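EI: anyone free to look at a 159-residue chain?
SC: sure, send it
EI:
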Amino acid sequence: MSTTETAVKKNIIDMFIDGMRSGLRIAITNMLPNVVLAFILIRALQVSGLLNLIGKVFGPVMALWAMPGEAATVLVAAFMSMGGGVGVAASLYLSGILTPADVSALLPAIYIMGNPMQNVGRCLGTAEVNTKYFTVITAICIINSLLAMWLMKALLVLF
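SC: here you go
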């Protein structure tokens, strides 16, 4: 005896609620811990004086994008975690170190970089990409991020 399954059709409200639940679960379990950790780390670097040292060391490099040296911490954090990069950028903005223009230029870089550490482990490894290409793929992410920062700075000047 066979049984027939009936498809349950959901209305748009139910689909919206399901999507919201899924999105909230992802935000709370994946992104929020990275953002909170980034805020804590930046505050620890400020209190210890290491953030000033980072600013001095990376100042000449970040000057290429007309940003303070401390902005390099955003890129390092983004390399490890997109949420961490956003958290560091927000923390530096709230501390008065980054301007709105700096944050605007950094955000595309954060997302283009796409946290290569996780990308290599989850995507490239799963897809069985030859490991000899990992370095090149990661370098392309970084180069594209730096180019995006210049493009955003140029757009901000024009508009």
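EI: The CA atoms of residues 82 and 115 lie 6 Å apart.
SC: 👍
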